[in-house]
Amino acid sequence: MxxxxxxxxxxxxxxxxxxxxxxxxxxxxxxxKQGDQIRMIRKGSSTLELYPPKFESRVQKKExxxxxxxxEEQPDSIVRKLISLYFLGFKIINLKSKNGRLNPIQRNxxxxxxxxxLMGSEIISDSSNGxxxxxxxxxxxxxxDGAFKRMIHLAKSMSNDALLAVKENNLDLAxxxxxxxxxxxxxxxxxxxxxxxxxxNEHILKEMGFRNARNCLxxxxxxKNIERTGDHAAFIAKDLLEFKKSIKKEILxxxxxxxxxxxxxxxxxxxxxxxxxxxxxxxxxxxxxQISKFEKKIKDASKSIKGDEEMYRVRRLAENIRxxxxxxxxxxxxxxxxxxxxxxxxxx
Length: 348
Hints:
Blueprint: E1 11-13, E2 17-19, H1 24-29, E3 39-43, E4 47-51, H2 53-56, E5 64-69, H3 75-87, E6 92-97, H4 104-116, E7 121-127, E8 130-135, H5 144-168, H6 171-199, H7 202-207, H8 213-243, H9 249-275, H10 278-288, H11 291-301, H12 308-339
Parallel strand pairs: 5-6
Antiparallel strand pairs: 1-2, 3-4, 6-8, 7-8
Helix pairs in contact: 3-4, 5-6, 5-8, 5-9, 6-8, 8-12, 9-10, 9-11, 9-12, 10-12
């Protein structure tokens, strides 16, 4: 829905009240009539919001939620519930045992999930009977764009470090890449939470800089592609931990060239997203077709490989890098979809 604006004078009536008239067209469109009540909410020092009663429930903030954990409930089930409630925007999440006590594994699982996955969350109460988690981060502390840029930076660093680890046969660096994947996911979860909150409140939507809720969906899809970029960097690191040896220098050089290209087009796709540049996104999609040239170079360099194991590893590494370029293409496609209206010819 497009934002509508009107300028009206504040008038003084009686001895203690001020009034502002509302446009007749707005009243008709909202299905209101004389005598209906409007709820007024003051937010901070600069914002007033008006809500007709029948719409008010749509914008109420979710404050707290409580989930009961059964004695036999598995750790992954607890993590899924925590993430879901975090996405839904609850500020307080209570975990309670159905049987009076959480077992040590359940408690440790919840603590690790809060620490590794739920950005801006802290455990404010913890006992054998249950746990209370508070989400303290707000929109002003970390914008969606700020979190997104940090997420991109981490995913790119992971990809570069993963190849460096293979080059140096550095198992410690490979493990660090895998650990960083959790940090990428944390930023992703945070962004998704903020987008869900924005979709439910037009004022917050505009504060975040989105023109409409559809753009929030576009960002949600982009976040998924960045998460996957981090995943494939982690796959490269896991390859080294599995085989514990590097591969031929000349092949690594070709893989590095392919990786540099993939990260470059990923950067360009995200820049087109921030600039809302339809035509730049089109150019990027065309440019990404050049990935086949890098694949051919790797294939040619691999002809000297004699062992099946190293050939398998090279193919797997190249596939992980190629997928990054595909995610860049997906992001560019999303930019096209979000900004197609800018290319339409205006008619009187």
